[in-house]
Write a structure and sequence with these properties.
This protein is α+β, with helices and mostly antiparallel strands. It has two domains: about 20-105, Helix Hairpins, CATH 1.10.287.90; about 115-400, Cupredoxins -  blue copper proteins (Immunoglobulin-like). It is built from eight helices and 15 strands. Belongs to the cytochrome c oxidase subunit 2 family.
């Protein structure tokens, strides 16, 4: 079963092994324990029924029985066995299921809490128990950082349609539903990077709605959380490309109709407090773009030429890169808003590069970089810590700043 799961799901990310057979998770271990009995009973039933079928067919073959078949109205003993045995099996499995639910479902008060918001087509992860010094909760877009060796309580909801949250290596899946809050536990004993995906068909870029789970040991997690709490976006040097990008990010370019990024995105420690798009506070630390469509895993990260090219194309015309993206265009082409086509504003290539330069400055301190020396689980590289080239992790389909 675990091997089948790995086979079916491993294509969801570059060099990732995605499997619900990962026994580093207590959730998965409990489900595997329950599954042993279910699979064993299934095998016994299959063998017994197959034996009864072939025995009956062979014994009562026409060439062995020329007499008319015996007539009877019923076999009470056989009927009783056929009713009682399935009822006993179902009751046994029900008891095992209730036992597992009693172990897995309760959420302890003293545990790490993370709020999950799913929207077309990206994810936001907030830490409600950690208030940023600059105001609001510590939040990260499309990359969930969690501690190891303890349960993590995820509370999930949706801002638009129904989405499905599932990172198989750390636990079970839940539906993200508008107006509803669902809380459940996930966990892992292994510090590593895991792949997560949306499992509910939610629109044109459902397959491109991904996220990363970065599990850290307690010391590194505490360091990350403390740095994220104290984080304030750096002030760019006057006259620099980053400073020009900051102005465009905050104000847009009204003369050409280019909208401000700050209207949709939040950057901790600035006046940018938009909620329509993912939080960009730590964009320079992140290694993914477009909710996991691309990964910048080279040592240069977003400074690498290929990564810069992807980021430039992303800002310039996101809906072209990611179908269904709701981000405005900045090349003057039309994009869809609430079912209607709207003409986008215009930024020159140089201005787009300035915005990208500003985004690359939004970094946590080096000691709080949760990607550093964190192995990608299931990497095909023998040395799991070795960086991999910038990878587009989805099929090459055309079509937000997610």
């Amino acid at each position: 079963m675990a091997s089948l799961g790995a086979t079916l799901l491993s294509g969801c990310g570059s060099q990732q092994l995605v499997t619900f057979g990962d026994m580093a998770s207590g959730f998965n271990r409990e489900v595997a324990f329950m599954s042993i009995f279910a699979i064993a009973l299934s095998v016994i039933i299959f063998v017994a029924v197959s034996y009864a079928l072939f025995f009956t067919v062979n014994k009562f073959r026409e060439d062995k029985n020329t007499d008319a078949p015996a007539q009877f109205h019923g076999n009470n003993r056989l009927e009783l066995i056929l009713v009682v045995v399935p009822v006993v099996i179902v009751m046994f499995l029900a008891v095992l299921t209730v036992r597992s639910m009693a172990i897995l479902n309760p959420v302890a008060e003293q545990t790490t809490k993370i709020d999950v918001l799913g929207r077309q087509f990206w994810w936001n992860f907030s830490y409600p128990e950690t208030k940023a010094d600059a105001g609001g909760d510590v939040t990260n877009g499309n990359e969930m950082v969690m501690p190891t060796k303890q349960p993590v309580a995820l509370t999930i909801t949706s801002g638009d349609v129904i989405h499905g949250f599932w990172a198989p290596n750390i636990g079970g899946q839940r539906a993200a539903m508008p107006g509803a809050l669902k809380t459940w536990n996930v966990d892992t004993d292994r510090a590593a990077v895991y792949q997560g995906n949306c499992t509910q068909l939610c629109g044109g870029s459902h397959a491109n709605m991904r996220y990363k789970v970065v599990a850290l040991d307690q010391e590194r997690y505490t360091t990350f959380l403390a740095a994220a709490k104290a984080y304030r976006a750096p002030e760019p040097a006057e006259g620099s490309a980053e400073a020009r990008g900051y102005e465009l990010f905050m104000k847009g370019n009204p003369a050409t109709g280019a909208l401000a990024c700050a209207a949709c995105h939040r950057v901790q420690g600035t006046t940018a407090a938009g909620a329509a798009g993912p939080d960009l506070s730590f964009f320079g630390t992140r290694r993914t773009l477009g909710a996991g469509m691309w990964e910048a895993m080279t040592p240069e990260h977003w400074e690498a030429p290929d990564a810069k090219a992807h980021l430039h194309a992303w800002i310039k015309h996101s809906p072209k890169v990611k179908p269904g993206s709701l981000m405005p265009t900045y090349d003057g082409s039309e994009y869809e808003v609430n079912g209607k086509l709207v003409k986008g504003g215009v930024l020159t290539d140089e201005q787009i590069d300035d915005v990208a330069a500003y985004l690359r400055t939004l970094k946590l301190p080096e000691e709080a970089d949760y990607w550093n020396n964190t192995p990608v689980y299931g990497s095909s590289d023998a040395a799991e810590n070795a960086p991999t080239p910038l990878a587009k992790t989805s099929s090459p389909t055309p079509g937000g700043k997610q």
